[in-house]
# Entry
Amino acid sequence: MGTLKLTLFHVGPVAPWANTVFHKQIEKGNAFLRPHGLRFEAYPASGSLDLDWSAPLLEQGRSGEGLAQRLALRAMAHARYASFDNRLPVILCQIGGGGGESPGSIDQKLNWLPWVVMDAFTLNEDGLTLTHEAGHCAGLKHPGHGPQGDSRLVEDGHAVTDNLMAYGTFDMATQKYGGRTLIDDWQIDAFRHAYFHSA
Ligand SMILES: [Zn+2]
# Structure
């Protein structure tokens, strides 16, 4: 069983929800990955490390003040717990646009290895946001064409929306996204080559 090593952090305003959110993200992620011989292993083993930060992150995170916030938060996490064994930092906070992000992944080169920030209150109901963002940190892309997308996740001109690296299939009746259920062997290989993977 390969492990994907995480270090968990939360900022002050989301502290009351951190255990619940992380528990769901890790349980659902492990249920999804375990059949493929992978599981998450978190530090600390219970709870998460607190960061003295209160401001929500601006929605636009790829430049300007929004990027500066993300880099400052990443530096704060490093000061709180510097991982010397290649763990993936996951920071639970508030993000203007909601959801999860993976700064420094895919086409964004920063002075840190890719890491994850997640909004505490708007995550996909399937509990696989952490796993999806970790996928980006392992180099995996969304369905699509060209350098920003992965054409292996496009079939007959349509995105494979049930794949982990998509967003689920939108159900018109309930107006909600269904859970993601698919991962391909080459995507498992990417996790096995991620900097936070340990054999
Ligand atoms: Zn994504």
Q: What stands out?
A: The mean pLDDT is 96.
